[in-house]
Amino acid sequence: MLRDIDHFIAGGAHAAGDRTSDVFDPNQGAVQARVRLGTALDLDRAVAAARKAQPAWAATNPQKRARVMFRYKELIEANMDDLAALLSSEHGKVLADSRGDIQRGLEVIEYACGIPQALKGEYTQGAGPGIDVYSMRQPLGIGAGITPFNFPAMIPMWMFGMAIACGNAFILKPSERDPSVPVRLAELMKEAGLPGGILNVVHGDKEMVHAILDHPDIAAVSFVGSSDIAQYIYSRGTANGKRVQAFGGAKNHGIVMPDADLDQVVNDLTGAAFGSAGERCMALPVVVPVGNETAERLREKLIPAIEQLRVGVSSDPDAHYGPVVSKAHKERIESYIQMCVDEGGELVVDGRGFSLQGNEEGFFVGPTFFDHVKPSFRSYREEIFGPVLQMVRAADFEEAVRLPSEHDYGNGVAIFTRNGHAAREFVSRVNVGMVGVNVPIPVPVSYHSFGGWKRSGFGDIGQYGQEGLRFWTKTKVVTQRWPDGSVTGENAFVIPTMG
Ligand code: NAD
Q: What's the CATH number where 166 sits?
């Protein structure tokens, strides 16, 4: 009997509907559970629960809301190993990486523990004669999050941690490929003391997504996933009058200057290109050495490092990375490898046909490395999202700035150098949202904000930190005067000024 994964609505399991989707164990390539694919009716139920609970939650003082976040942090820490095992079993990333996935989400919960301080408004006494002006942040009401498979703990926590701490109710539609951890995260929120109806999880595919985008009671939608869908979510959600932030795919470049410490670069690059089987939006799947001499030296060091990578099941503590998420995704990655060969790339290390003894049906792809990739290749312009590293040789620094700047995606980029002037110049000129200087995966800490540019992000406001606060609240500005009873002589027909 397969396990069924139910919706989580109004603080409990909701087991309606016959339509389901298979959830795999990517290590074995076998179905291990079925997730329900909900309909607009299931969403209505979640929205009704959220609408009922939200006013009292918004009226709960921020310090008490923060206490729920404190208890939640303790519960996540106490359940870390179980959550990581569950996450790895559906996603395929290795256990240490699953713990990192949870930890990076938990850091946003830690930020949310400071919500009383973060939510404070501004005040100006005496903005005019007897006039004070102040601002306050109020919750939007009901927010929704639609999340990708690759970070089933971190990205939901980015969204609901902020939304809920700000006083909103939240409806999460996680990826149907690894939905168990998101449900567990909601159950733990209940255990932490969150009232039922404030955090609901509805499962589904595009039918559920459309229902969310069209629901009149959902005020805001946060999306993370691939770019075409992000753009569609942004258009349809905003056309329906919602606030929308929609983050998309990526093709991040690592620029290697001639003076970089190449041993450090090889260490950082192999981790960032192949960790989590390359299924990270902040992976580094493109390396750009500056000058042919740098390229040759780097290539010489990279090849043995890539050949020594250990691919294994996600519970293998010595594995550098595990299987990719699905059979279809494995086939897609392998077709991109063939495309890059056909386009004229030099296939230096070929990861196709990789098989793990005892796990022959698992969705494994070996590490793959291409040299002499050209910016005109489709396999370079598009996101592969697998353990494939492409080397594009740049003649000089100018070309190295131009490549990521002119790419359709603009999520992250990194420069490896010992030259502070070159790094500073690069940081200021590159047309990409998040930049690492000798840092391969520059995901900002939770008290800054995350957001890519160009086709990596639609909308204006980033995730978490100050931008998250702005996204999940609306600012009300009050101008007040308490007259003493004497009527002033101002001309009330002229737009008031402060004198
Ligand atoms: P995806 O776009 O396939 O799915 C994301 C969400 O959209 C899921 O909840 C899914 O159910 C839903 N969805 C899928 N097809 C849909 C459709 N036709 N209509 C409406 N909704 C649909 O993405 P994925 O494969 O789960 O995740 C990988 C992608 O996410 C990669 O492109 C990766 O770069 C991107 N990503 C981006 C960031 C970022 O912050 N920019 C972070 C993580 C992942």
A: 3.40.605.10
The pLDDT tens digits of the residues spanning 68-126 come to: 999 999 999 999 999 999 999 999 999 999 999 999 999 999 999 999 999 999 999 99
CA of 289 to the centre of ligand 1 (A): 30
CATH number at residue 317: 3.40.309.10
Angle separating helix axes 180-191 and 154-165, nearest 10 degrees:
30
Query: So which residues are the catalytic ones?
Result: 281
Ligand 1 atom 35: residue of nearest CA: 225
* Domain enclosing residue 216, as ranges: 3-248+456-478
Cβ–ligand 1 distance for 245 under 6 Å, the answer: no
Helix (H) and strand (E) counts for the chain?
A: 16, 23
Clarify whether residues 153 and 279 are in a common domain. Answer: no
Query: Do residues 152 and 223 share a domain?
Result: yes
Please tell me if the CB atom of residue 250 comes closer than 6 angstroms to any atom of ligand 1. yes
Q: 259 with 198, same domain? A: no
Model pTM above 0.90: yes
Helix (H) or strand (E) holding 255: strand 253-256
What's the CA-to-centroid distance between 228 and ligand 1, angstroms?
Answer: 9
Is 400 touching ligand 1 by the criterion CB < 6 Å? no
Distance separating alpha carbons of residues 143 and 136, to the nearest angstrom: 19
